[in-house]
Amino acid sequence: MMRMVDIIEKKRDNFTLSRKEINYFIEGYVNSSIPDYQVSALLMAIYYNGMTDEEATHLTEAILKSGDTIDLSGIDGKKVDKHSTGGVGDKTTLVLGPLVASCGAKVAKLSGRGLGHTGGTLDKLESIEGFNINLASEQFVKQVNDINIAVAGQTAKLAPADKMLYALRDVTGTVPSIPLIASSIMSKKLASGADVIVLDVKIGEGAFMKTIEDARKLSKLMVKIGTNFDRKVVAFITDMSEPLGFAVGNKLEVLEAIRTLQGNGPDDLQNLCIEIGSYLVHNSGITETIKEARKMIQKKITSLEASDKFKELIEAQGGKVPDLNDYIHTNGIIAVKSEQAGYVKSLNALDIGLSAMRLGAGRETKDDTIDMDVGIVLNKKVGDKVEADEVLAYVYNNKADITEEIKTILGAFTITENVVEKKPLILEIIE
Ligand code: URA
Predict the structure, then answer these.
(1) Which of 50, 277, 278, 329 has the smallest number of CB atoms closer than 10 Å to its CB?
(2) Ligand 1 center to residue 71 CA distance, Å?
(3) How far apart are CA 282 and CA 108, in angstroms?
(4) Which of 81, 184, 190 has most ligand 1 atoms within 8 Å of its beta carbon, as the pocket-test mutant?
(5) CATH of range 332-416; options 3.30.470.20, 3.30.1360.170, 3.40.190.10, 3.90.1170.30
(6) Has this prediction a pTM greater than 0.70?
């Protein structure tokens, strides 16, 4: 008979767990026959001793099997998906989905909500009047077959073991473990049914991975797990030391996404979406080379087919297409101005994300409600020249007193006298 204590001791002493042992502990945890304290001890042993690629693959499989998997076999063609480890101002899904759908890729996207300093795609989409994210599965499949794209909310039945493990890791200091992160992310991606996946692994302040070495290890492991399950996985390692694009806040990010789809977006966001999009389009077999995919994407932006696809998605899910010139309504827009001249040396994404959250753009706890109109629009980013008294950021505000937030936003910028070089956003691509 298998016993949890033996499994804990085995991992404590740095031996390799078998597929049976891993299944035993996940099944036992989900059906409550194994208590939190034993799982906590095992998680800490995994944190210290790691896992082999094979163990991580078995863990992914066990988490995946703990719940439903989405059946997308009714969709013709390869399904693509993209996952980001969470960023401030990260509206890539809003841009990428319509962009690759307009190239013919099938986007059957399940998204989540935001918590804390990072926003969620579902909240951003729900800031569009009438947009419905609760699609029945037949409707979801039909919409992808009809217009190549649908975005719906994740159900609680997807990888329930991951929800339980994540909550436990959160309070036992075992979140930043590469095999635990990899199996957590990959189990959900595999459960959502995509054939072609691009992962965006962020590094920097406020991201899970602090160094390029760790990001590389995590990326390689996720690509390996994906391959073991016959999926085509590519990982981008990207820098998240500053927010992506200019806008942070729900409606503000929807506007920025539409402008990016029309070719008028911020350079960093535009380039990232074109690069990730090229891999999705190429890896789903639409083009022979990445270069051709990049060309096709650029054409869809210029011809406005990409932004028309976003409108099609909005209408298909019951939403009203935003009027770009009359969309955001707040009591005030406050300019945050620089106290000195120079160059922006750094711009703390975490501070900006937390500030936007406190303004009402995000949730501090699960039950908070969001003010869809508020947020922050950056006017300067790392490497930009700034004059004294020049605007660093605009705050779209509905609160009575935001003196503290203005201080936080000002403090998020570090200005120096010396010229600062702009850093590349995409650091590495791991295939
Ligand atoms: N994102 C996840 O989904 N899981 C982790 O463990 C870390 C980041």
Answers:
(1) 329
(2) 23
(3) 17
(4) 184
(5) 3.90.1170.30
(6) yes
